[in-house]
Amino acid sequence: MREEEFERLEQQIVRLTDLALQFGLDPFQMRYELCPADILYSIGAYGMPSRYSHWSFGKAYERMKMAYDFNLTKIYELVINSNPCYAFLLENNSLLQNQVIAAHVLGHSDFFKNNIYFHTTQRDMLESMAVTSKRFRQYEFEHGIDAVEQILDAGLAIQPLSIWCHRFQPW
């Protein structure tokens, strides 16, 4: 985006936020970031801006980024359900696209904040994940990357089963 478009987007975000509040939305305080595609897809692959290192995230990144590079898919934005709520917008979007996406993101934030299904969300997850990432780097230093990766491989292999068991408990 050009500088004047960036300034216009900032003005429109203020206007859109005011309109959202007037219409009764109650979003978290918002933080917007314009990101190049490689950063946005990196966040998408890792699930967060900061996370422990694992080869599967690189695999996911390559798959997502290749689909973007071949114009098969496009992530217009990523929103993190935290307080404040972070919205990462694709810098290659047009000004109009980012304006519409900013309004859309306010709806996400209101939903995250006010929907009963999200009331148990850890709202400081960005800080928590950064601390966890640091702890995993320390484990790699103390025990070696291979040992940590073996544990992560085992945990990530059964992760889908834990989600399934949680949803379909027969008891």
Automatic annotation (TrEMBL):
The UniProt entry, under InterPro entries, shows:
Spore_V_R, SpoVR_N
Which stretches make up the SpoVR protein-like N-terminal domain?
Answer: 4-161
**Which branch of life, at top level?**
Bacteria
Q: What is this protein called?
A: Spore cortex formation protein SpoVR/YcgB (Stage V sporulation)
Organism in which the protein naturally occurs: Caldalkalibacillus uzonensis
